[in-house]
Design goal:
single chain, two-stranded antiparallel sheet, 2 strands, about 5% strand, globular, MYND-type domain-containing protein, metal-binding
Length: about 70
């Protein structure tokens, strides 16, 4: 089972892009995956590049979010 988790690196924010590893800062605003909110990306290009690796876990977590909202 594949589990997507945010890439953690030592920085002030403690967050990094899931694809390239760039750390979030005042100039680089990381955005959450809109469906599962488990990983962050520095931009659309990284999100598209990482999609194949993230797709299965993303769909599973998005379904869990939907179930949580229903119950």
């Amino acid at each position: 089972m594949m589990s997507c988790r945010p890439v953690r690196q030592e920085s002030s924010s403690g967050e990094a892009c899931a694809n390239c590893g760039k750390q979030g800062s005042d100039t680089i605003q990381l955005k959450n995956c809109a469906a599962c909110r488990l990983v962050k990306y520095c931009g659309v290009d990284c999100q598209r590049a990482y999609r194949k690796l993230h797709k299965k876990a993303c769909k599973q977590r998005a379904a869990e979010f939907k179930d949580e909202q229903l119950y």
